[in-house]
Amino acid sequence: MILTFSNEEFVQKIIDGDKIHTIREDKTSRWHRGRIIQFWFGNPRNVKNNPYEFMKGECISDQKIEINYQGLQQHGMIIPTIKVDGKFLPYWKKEELAINDGFTTLHGFLQWFDKDFTGKIIHFTDYRY
Length: 129
Prior knowledge:
129 residues; globular; alpha+beta
C-alpha cells in the first residue's frame, strides 16, 4: 500500500532509520501488521510534482493514538493529552513520540498535529509505546 510523505526531511529520516513510524488517520482500518508499504515522496497520482518511490517496507505493527487539546498549559504552550492504546503518555514520552515520528521537537510535532486527532501509529520497527 502506498504511504506518501510531503516533507523531504522525512524521506532521509526513514531511509536512515531515524523516523521509525508515521501517524495517520485510518477510518477503514487499512493499516495493520504485515501490510506491505511503498514509501513515496509526493503523491504518485500527481506527476507534475515529480513524485518518486524511495523505499519498500512493512507495517510491523500499529497502535491507536488519540491527541486531545483539552490538556494543561506547560512550557508556555498548551500540551494536549496523548493516549496510545488507551494509555496516557507522560511529557517525556510525548517528546520521544515526536522525535521518533521525524520531528526535531515536541513543539514541531504539535504544530503539525494542531487539533484533536484520532488515528494510528504505523510502526516500521518493533518499538512500541
